[in-house]
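User: Please run a holo structure prediction.
Assistant: Happy to. Please share the sequence and the ligand.
User: Here you go; the ligand is zinc ion.
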Amino acid sequence: MLREVYSGRVGTYEVCDASPYLKSAAKFHGEPTDARCPVCRKENLTNVHYIYGDELKQSAGQARRLAELPVLAMTFREFHVYVVEVCRACGWNHLVEQYLLGRDGIAGTQGEAANAVGASGQVGAGRAPVRGGGRPRTRLRPGAGE
Ligand SMILES: [Zn+2]
């Protein structure tokens, strides 16, 4: 996706479409990262964790702090977590990864998830190679490497 933006095939107006809701979720529930926004480079990205699942009922689709996830994982049998990186300056947002949590899941998943979130903080840090032949940026592809 970023490659498309840099190459001009996708206008930034198309990707910088964070809703006011997403931006406020980033403000109140987001986890700050060390990664600069790859689009505007004005602010660091914030990771927002959304939870989805039938068991969650009214909570489904809500943003939760990372620290709340282990508690939820002990409460529910299974739910999906979607990690979205958001730039609060320009509105860039992108699904970084998704994973399953819950009592039915494999023990230790949470630790891996936390590590994965930390690793995703590297996305966009420094000068990103934008043309073909650069370092593979697999973290941008949800589900890759999990
Ligand atoms: Zn930005």
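Residues 37, 39-40, 42-43, 87, 89-90, 92 surround zinc ion (CB under 6 Å).
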